[in-house]
Amino acid sequence: MTVPVARLSSFYLFYYAALGAFTPYWSLFLTARGMSVTAISVMMGLWYATRVIAPSTWTSLAAASARPIRLLRVGCVLTLLSFAAFLLPLPQPWMYPAMVVFCFFYNAVMPQFESITLTHLGSDSHRYGLIRVWGSLGFIAVVTLFGWLIEGDGTASRAGLLPWMMLPLFALLVASAFSNHYARGIGKTDGDASGFWQIVRRPPVLAFFLAAFMEQLSFGPYYTFFSVYMDHHGYRTSTLGLLWTIGVVFEVGVFFTIGRFFRRYDASWMLLIALVSSCLRWAVTALFPENLPVMLLAQTAHALGFAAFFAAAMQMLATYFPGRLNGHGQGLLYGFSSGVGGVLGALIAGQLWKIDDGRTAFLAGSGFALVGALLCFFALSLPLIRARRSAAHTP
């Protein structure tokens, strides 16, 4: 069966291109609309809050549907339509429900599409990185281009035009959704959730989800306060941009090459490597924030802590949850790890930040990653070592 690489890649390209505009610049748009810092923090909190419920809700609906591809297309259309509300001069009280609706659908569709990609790849799931990398490329391109467009001529920001700039990206996402479909042979019975929780209760599967949760928890200080932390230590805005970009650039390299690793080794080993790298990264960030060469080196670890971890997680989900059961697995990973883990990580980081302006928060992030690494080693990697030794001693 031929894998529709171009069509699958286009969805990642447009989805993460839009995210490349949303993540760094949406707060600037909200500022241009006259919102206060407190109001903006609430608005951005809605993004993470919807990640808790949207993925699992949507993937469950897809698994129960006789035509799940229709749900993906409906979700993308509703993402476009709900986002179009920001083109209007909405009063501030109306901005909150508009944000909830938009974030719900935007967060809902990607876990389902991850499942679609894996149904096409089948036993070739090691090729996932070659498709997912287009999302990273789209993210980098839009972050760079939109930064230049928004900055304008230096006299006035164009952040208020951001929704008009992003709308074509969501329109292209809709077009990509209508060009994609599930692989043949994935029937409705494959989505039966009756055995899903039996799989989740297996010790290795539980350990996997808990390790993913700890990894996302460890990223809380980074996603919430890294720029503030670097600014506090005297870094210029241009240097901050370099520190953010270098991690994504190395991320692209990992997605291009990681398939070779998965052809030779179990994905749980990469999961362990990623967790250890995050543990070291956050410790270095806490202890040596004023050393630019060290910080640049630490940022390259994003390639392992995010890209390699994510690719390994997709491999393991494909193994644990075959067929359309994979949609349930994707929903749980996104909702529990990215959703609950993201919200708790941000809240914990905010509380620890008051102690010493960030150092303790990043050390806590290092500790969370270490706990995840220990879980991964004892529940996933160590059994592989024992099984290999047992096989070697079998006559």
From TrEMBL:
The keyword Cell inner membrane applies. This is MFS transporter. It comes from Stenotrophomonas maltophilia. One of its GO terms (cellular component) is plasma membrane. PROSITE patterns: MFS (PS50850). The chain crosses the membrane at residues 12-28, 71-88, 94-110, 131-150, 162-183, 204-223, 243-262, 269-288, 300-321, 333-355, 361-385. One of its GO terms (molecular function) is lactose:proton symporter activity. Keywords: Cell inner membrane, Cell membrane, Membrane, Transmembrane, Transmembrane helix, Transport.
